[in-house]
Write a structure and sequence with these properties.
Elements (H helix, E strand, L loop, with lengths): L1 H11 L1 H8 L5 E5 L2 E6 L2 E3 L1 E5 L8 H4 L3 H5 L5 E7 H4 L9 H12 L3 E11 L8 H5 L6 E3 L5 E5 L4 H22 L5 E8 L12 H8 L4 H9 L6 H9 L8 H5 L3 H26 L4 E6 L19 H6 L6 E6 L4 H8 L7 E2 L1 E2 L2 H15 L3 E2 L4 H4 L13 H19 L5 E6 L5 E6 L2 E7 L10 E9 L2 E7 L1 E7 L6 E13 L2 E7 L11 E2 L6 E10 L1
Parallel strand pairs: 4-5, 4-14, 5-6, 6-9, 9-10, 10-11, 11-13, 12-14
Antiparallel strand pairs: 1-2, 2-3, 7-8, 15-18, 16-17, 17-20, 18-19, 19-24, 20-23, 21-22, 21-24
Helix pairs in contact: 1-2, 8-13, 15-16, 16-18
Amino acid sequence: MRRILIVLTLLCFPHLSAQAQHIGIPHLEKHGTATQLVVDGKPFLILGGEINNSSSSNLDYIRPAWGRLAAIPLNTVLTPLSWELIEPREGQFDFTLVDGLIQDARRNNLHLVFLLLASWKNGMSSYVPLWVKKDTQRFPRVILKDGNPIEVLSPLGRESMAADAHAFAALMRHIREVDGDAHTVLMMQVENEVGVLGDSRDRSPAANKAFDAPVPKELMTYLWQHHDTLIPEFRKVWETAGAKPTGTWQEVFGHGVEVDEIFMAWNYGRYIQSVTAAGKAEYPIPMYVNTWLGGWPHPHAFPSGAPLPEVMDVWRAAGTAIDVFSPDIYETDFANWCDRYNRSGNPLFIPEALGGLTGEANVFYAIGAHEAIGFSPFGVDSFIDQERPIEIDAANDLGKSYAVLQSLAPVILEHEGRGEMAGFVLDKDHPQTSVELNGYLLDVKLDHVFETNSQHAFGLIIATGPDEFLGAGTGFSVSFRLKSAGRTQVGLGYVDEGAFVGGAWVPGRRLNGDEDDQGRAWRFIEKRIHVEKAVVYRYE
């Protein structure tokens, strides 16, 4: 009888049947303190690259690049999909481009993360279909302080949100149908770097009316329920204004530019959470939003209302469909932005960043220090464009890091979430750091061979056993000591250079001479990125 009831249920609800067949779809899973992407039942580390905005709008244009992207080596390509090409006429969908991208990725053993460029891209609404652009009554625009509309859909437009959500649901339903078993598509980015440009908030009639109305109950309830764990910068704004339980936006959050940003974060959050939820109802793979970075006080040079760290709680209060708030990090203070996003339960995924020598180093920090789900420099198809000079990464520095990290991925993923891994980037301004692993204090320094060199040093270290450590990178040295002072000292038993081949450790040279300073330091003194294993011992 129970089996008959299950069959009847699935017949009555065919969508439930489809979901039941795909319980192994890509999803996020907690592993200790880390959040991992799980694909086909195994954790997966995204070593990716995002291609240029228009490269994937034509299959013939991007097709020659797939093999070269795989050879970087990437395991995942982040590629845009534009609403205007998916739904050129309202209600008429064309997924030819989607199918072609998935097929070409599979042929080259690559995974995909699709970027939905729909209502907004870099704050603007340039990727919406022409039928949306023309109908400003049905799909209202943002109006700035000077009274002029701009080419940005207002996040208060209910019809805009419904149309976007309808298109996204259709897209995710199609991806489930064509990729629900193969799992080529790992994640979805919903919109791109949203926010108002040129002003701190939307000043359209609908926005002004909402701004003068009471703060929605859902947001106020969230504030009180999460008071002790709110992002400190956000809580400070609320408390400085008196921590009121109700009131208009200015009564609750004050009269500075911060209130405008909070107001816009709520409205963008409600809109995009709704769009995301519609897509997830069809195919619930992990979904994230990315951020054009800036900060308070708000300059008009970056979008107002984006999921910046100080307003992540506002986005959370707006809904639960979005899994990750991601930073696009082109700033020099890379570590600071990683710290600010990898907190309050938000896992780190970096969908846009610099490549080249900068990306070569930063990927080690993101994975080693923050157990990032993945890393993805922007414009990687420019790295390998054979039709023009390569300015961005002529030496394929990113690929050198990726090749090593790909070989280490099983070990990295095994040890994530246990406090057994550290990552770092060192230079003349930051020549050293200390980390604690397995009861040892590791003093990591810019090796003296590199002290007069402008090149930075970087790497990660994993505690793979009680007295065993695996390291990868270049330009640094490590000395070991115990936390508690005493007579017991720590010595280097031995250091082996080596590599993982087919998942197995294959040792190379034994480095117990000048290479480890006669036992005084574990040194990564070669300029090439490489892997070493160190075994330590204690003595008095």
